[in-house]
Amino acid sequence: MTTSQFSKSAATLFSLLVLLSAIAAAQLQIGSGNTAFADPNVPRPKTTPCVVTLYQHFEFADFNPKSFTYTPPAACPGPWAKVILQANFSINEGRQFDRTANIWIGPTNIYFGTTAEPSHNVSRHWHVERDLTDYSSIFTVTQAGTVDLGNLVNSTYTSILHGSADILFFPLEQNQLPPRTADQVIAFSSGPTGGTVGLNTTTDLLEQTLTLPTNITDLYFDVFAQSQSNDEFWYTCVPNDVAGELQSCGGTAFRESEVTIDGTPAGVAPVYPWIYTGGIDPYLWRPIPGVQTMNFLPYRVNLSPFASLLDDGQVHTIALSVFNADSYFSATASLLLYLDSSATKLSGAVTENTLSVPVPDVIENIHTASNGNIAGTVNTKSAHNFQISGYVNTSLGPVTTTVAQNIDFSNDQYFKVTPSFYEQDINQGTTIHSVVTTHNASGSFTNIVNQTWPLKLNITLLFNPDGSGSQATTVNQYYERDQEDRHNGQAISFSLIQNRVTPTDTLDFAPGFVITGNTNQSSAQNYFSSNSSGYCYSRSITASTGVLTSVTNGRGCD
Fold it and tell me: Who's near 343: CB < 8 A, 6+ residues apart?
């Protein structure tokens, strides 16, 4: 393609994206209190999809999972250019907690997220999507499906949730090569119809002991670890010895998912600090929820250096745990296997593995004055700097994969506690620098991924002599991921995602922390993504007093 042709193609694509963005913006109504987020839908191919309905208008008013049957699309046999889940949820006005939602095909998770809380006079509805193309192999046979959205409905908690879901199967264009997708997907869940597994402590495991195919060339582990119960606000926690006086949770502010093979460290999946729509102050998230709150992204761990080990025909145990879990994390994972179709048995070796278990460092500097007032800091840090390498002798020659990662976590907290004042200020950051280098007969391929997940959170409470008072909260929650691919040192592709949510609110409460109202509520979300194909998406939205106030599209995409 010439430079002129590329420019025309990029301009056409940009015009299409502007049109799609404008159509989507029309669905966001200024002045509405309905759930609103700036996240884009999954980009579609040009072909017309076959739509398979998983379920329609299911009602969620109890804790019984609902069943459906998945049947492959007869009119669109695979392979497919893209496979996309689209799901719609709603909740009627009233009172209800935020709830966790999962959708499963057989034992495999295809959606994980949480729901919006309603208000007494605002019902809510929202739409989520997930790109499932890598999971194409699970959609080739009829299977039982399950949607699990437990919800308590009674005279106090009155709101019922409803939902529908479809999968879109996009055929290949004429002469289009199919994308490379996993040959096998092995689910790590609680049973044949799915279900998450609770990890209550560091030693609890989500694991499988199995004999894998002997022609694996590369493999990946997609991890979901959702904080629940005592661990819901793990980023606010402190060591047990000061948890009481600081009126906070224990177990420190460090959590991290660990992957092992036969008990040996094999990968790390840092935990994103998701905040649900009832978290800290429900008014913060009306109408804009937190980053990924309604639609979690799995963390993908590259286990390809271990392919030769798992190709030996012996039994192996692959396990997931959460370091410092303190009751509890809800976990599931999927193992994606890519096989050599021209060989039945591959050899090779793991040649290097410097990954070890984390050793977090916690520094407490808390002072208690003679009058009982408390002030000080608790700083928690953890870091990995490791390299794992291995090779496998494939039908096309030897392939060597090296995974090198630097992962830095920090959580710095400041406390001030008096009888009439409480402040907890949190500045947390996770930075991940990953370089995966693959050497094969075609040369050297390098995948470089940088991720940063800052979270800034300030909670300040003022107490009056009668026990009434106010709670002022500000949040700055961020997710950024940039990726570059190189072949023999030459850049061949890039992509970028930036997602930031920044709410603030002040709660007013009567004695006994009975909420009487709120003031000064506002929020904003800025989402930007682009890649080297010419795709660019940008949307910024703002809200005040619980309703949407502005939508801006396309900024930075010119």
Answer: 215, 394, 395
Q: Is the pTM of this model over 0.90?
A: yes
- CA-to-CA distance for 138 and 337, rounded, in angstroms? 12
The burial class, CB within 10 Å (0-12 / 13-18 / 19+), for 242 is middle
Please determine, for residue 16, whether its predicted confidence score (pLDDT) is greater than 80: no
Q: What is the pLDDT of residues 422-458, one digit of tens each?
A: 999 999 999 999 999 999 999 999 999 999 999 999 9
Task: Please report which confidence band the pLDDT of residue 10 belongs to, taking 50, 70 and 90 as the band edges.
Answer: very low
Beta bridge partners of 504: 474, 522
Close Cβ partners of 440 (under 8 Å, ≥ 6 residues apart): 394, 396, 397, 398, 399, 400
Contacts of 136 (CB under 8 A, 6+ apart): 78, 79, 80, 83, 181, 182
- pLDDT at position 27, please? 73
Tally Cβ neighbours within 10 Å of residue 377: 14
**What letter would DSSP give residue 532?**
T
d(CA 6, CA 74): 37
Transcribe 65-100 into DSSP letters. -EEEEE---TTSPSPEEEEEEEEEEEE-SS-----E
Nearest to 208 by CA among 356, 325, 334, 305: 334
- CB-CB contact of 57 with 123 (8 Å): no
DSSP for 127-168 reads: EEEEE-GGGGGGGSS-EEEEEE-----SSSS-PPEEEEEEEE
Give me 19's structure tokens. Answer: 């049109």
SS3 for 381?
A: strand
* Residues 6+ away with beta carbon under 8 Å from 497: 479, 480, 481, 482, 528, 529
Residue 330 CB coordination number (10 Å): 20
Spatial CA neighbour of 101 closest among 93, 92, 110, 24: 110
Distance of alpha carbon 43 from alpha carbon 354, whole angstroms: 38
Q: How many CB atoms lie within 10 A of CB 369?
A: 9
Average pLDDT over the chain, rounded to an integer: 94
What number of other Cβ atoms are within 10 A of residue 162's Cβ?
17
Report all structural domains of the chain as residue ranges with CATH numbers, in order of start.
Answer: 36-176 (2.60.120.1570)
d(CA 552, CA 22): 10
Helix (H, G, I), strand (E, B) or coil at 8: helix
Residue-wise pLDDT tens digits, 174-200: 999 999 999 999 999 999 999 999 999
DSSP E strands, 172-215 = 184-188, 197-199, 206-210
